[in-house]
Amino acid sequence: MSDTIREVVRKKYAKAITGKKGCCGGSSCCDTSLSKATQKITGNLYSESEVQGLPEDMIATSFGCGNPTALADLYSGETVLDLGSGAGLDVLLSARRVGPNGKAYGLDMTDEMLAEARQNQKKSGITNVEFLKGHIEDIPLPDNSIDVIISNCVINLSADKDKVLKECFRVLKPGGRIAVSDIVLKKPLPLNVQQDLIAWAGCIAGALKDTEYQDKLKDVGFENIEVQVTRVYDITDIGIEMFSHLSEVELAQAEGAVVSAFIRARKPKVIAVNGIDYEIRQATANDLTKVQELLTRAGLPTDGVDDNIKHFLVATTKNNKLLAVIGMEQAGAHGLLRSLICDPNFSKQGIANELVKAAIASAAKDGIKRLYLLTQTAERYMKRFGFQTIERQEIPGDLLKQSKLNTACPTCGTCMSLELG
Known about the structure:
Layout: H1 2-18, H2 32-42, H3 68-71, E1 79-83, H4 89-98, E2 103-108, H5 111-124, E3 129-133, E4 146-152, H6 161-171, E5 172-185, H7 191-194, H8 197-201, E6 208-209, H9 210-220, E7 223-232, H10 235-239, H11 248-254, E8 258-266, E9 271-273, E10 276-282, H12 288-297, H13 305-308, E11 313-317, E12 322-331, E13 334-342, H14 351-365, E14 370-375, H15 379-383, E15 388-390, H16 397-402, E16 414-419
Parallel strand pairs: 1-2, 1-4, 2-3, 4-5, 5-6, 13-14
Antiparallel strand pairs: 5-8, 7-8, 9-10, 10-11, 11-12, 12-13, 14-16, 15-16
Helix pairs in contact: 1-5
């Protein structure tokens, strides 16, 4: 049954994209009933400012039920995966938001969709994008490699949603999040609608109840689960032709059942590396002494740590053993990274890498537009994250004026910066 559903879905969307109208466009690409249904679901989801500069026909070939890029928090430097990326609209919008130091992947099973998406990418000139062929039940990416998963009315099309959600959990980094638009049900649909493959390809029959969606996410291991209804659909408004075979009793049963929703969830932040479980979190006053001790042992300055401890991130084990730390000083839209150090007993295990990425994402979330740093030993290392060498006088005066590190020898270190957007 699942292979049959997948093939029906693949053929429907291959035909739709070949017609260049999308199921939200005209009736030529889909059966009449399916076209009318999806037109009500997929229309008016993107603003003109969002799609400015993108190929003009991309909206017409969008099959979504929401706009996950508008509802998801995306930050500079993050890696995003769009499940069922279609013609590539949400991938390109995501790539813009994560910037040149981030990346956006699109995954789709339909050759025609992938060809269209790659053409749209070429027209847009956006380069931090990669489109992959595959199934959402078997994502062709490594474990713990993605910061954010988005999807636009696609997970409901899968006949094995448990496997999809398990794959999402696998590829997300610890603390990573899923933020998808999907069709969900507030109550069960009549059985003959659930079994209708045409309705399935139209995003309706395969939808889960909202509570069932939440339970499946929880069973996989997600936390902070939220289902937010964004649209409620009138069955007759969607398209009476699709439901012409239903009795009056069945129509009444179906009324109010179909909604689109934004589903959020997060993978727990605990990170396992070489047998060590740890999490990255914001430092508190209770961490101050341990942070200062670690910096002192490493020969790094502790000036200003007490004033800026709320801007520090720490990696700690479950019993609160401090493994690593990274700090930040902030002046308006500028930030100064400082105090990156890992306990020597836990070095070379990727903990510092995760701290730097977390600090960059945290800075972007706090509205910092450009990060700076001073280093004597980590120039090559920080270039991995997009930092570029600059002259000391390029560091904003207001940042240096308040920084406790402004007395550092100007000839002994290298100044670097990273634009966050």
